[in-house]
């Protein structure tokens, strides 16, 4: 029997990226949460950590396109390729088609990785042959071949599941009030934006930090944010001390809109964040409320997320407490709250830039369960708010069932609530009209934010 070939050492950044893909596949992990731990485990320097992040996140974003390319290069179904080998082939394909990695380096390091994880010289030879076929054409040529014009073009060319493409197309239609051709052009812009890595955005919590303390360019619409050009957020003093944090500008605007809403006659003392985890919006709301003498209560159903909320609120003024409770049945007296934020659990399809694996994890069947939960949370929040008080319903999803569908359903079944104009609360934000009059819909391709939806509901007498 021939002596088995000794495996070459595996490049650490590529092995780290493979471990991220494995965690996403096997443990349903979120890549952005796994990456710091993997980088630490492999003791990667800053440059290697950046390479690993782009390799893992980019591969997850473009998995749909890469699988179509690999299917064209393999003489059997991808389902018959061992999962650990397929993950490595996807990593190699991303290096060949989307990164400035020399062809020989992308192929040889991937073959070494396959030999290590599969423990099989046959698998290594297979990977070598497949990647050489991938390298025979550039990305544009592959898109022309595997995603010709037709029903599946957007799905493959922009690497989004078909049902998500359909939902985003529907959401853009009423928001844009445009012709079908205009909607298709804007859909392409949105799908492109979904595949661009988001920049890190910081938020200064009023009364505790000023935007002048934050490095980077001020955000366009939020008066409290700044875009970090480079470096680690924790290296910023205000962030390390908890006086500032990392928060997408769209999420900042949710808190800003609720704080700016005018109330009917009565007090403005108690604010509630009903679905508070992981706590970014709670921290900004607490700071805004404290400036006018209000206190914030944060409720969160999951204990581990409640601990994250408590950590985000540590040292913040104007915090009454963090309560582990189901938002549908919070331990608060009906009619006792002045302002409520319902940042409802949702599909998260508005944040595909920062959670690329969500597009492959979410299924159409998830919608019904989420919509029923969203309706219950919004109805419960209306019960908690006093007459003249307001509820801001927000989702990090533009899907119509989760946005206008939920709001319309609640409005149709209650006579004690009206829909107010949330667009007027954000006068500096252009082209943000949502699917219902007065609602707000932010978009990655228009505003550079997550696709946050907002509706402001006022409790009547």
Structure description:
With 461 residues, this protein is α/β, with parallel strands linked by helices. The protein folds into 4 domains: 12-142, N-utilizing Substance Protein B Homolog, Chain A (Orthogonal Bundle); 152-194, no CATH class; 199-247, no CATH class; 260-459, Rossmann fold (3-Layer(aba) Sandwich), CATH 3.40.50. 47% of the residues lie in helices and 13% in strands. It has 19 helices and 12 strands. The strands form 2 sheets. Strands 5, 6, 7, 8, 9, 10, 11 and 12 form an 8-stranded mixed sheet that branches. A 4-stranded antiparallel sheet has the order 2-3-1-4. Strand 2 and strand 3 (225-228) form a beta hairpin. Helix 4 crosses helix 5, helix 10 packs across helix 11 (180-194) and helix 13 (249-260) runs parallel beside helix 14. The radius of gyration is 24 Å and the shape is globular. 49% of the residues are buried. The model has no long low-confidence stretch (mean pLDDT 94). Belongs to the class I-like SAM-binding methyltransferase superfamily. RsmB/NOP family. Pfam families: Methyltr_RsmB-F, NusB. It is an enzyme of class 2 (transferase). GO terms for molecular function: methyltransferase activity. One of its GO terms (biological process) is methylation.
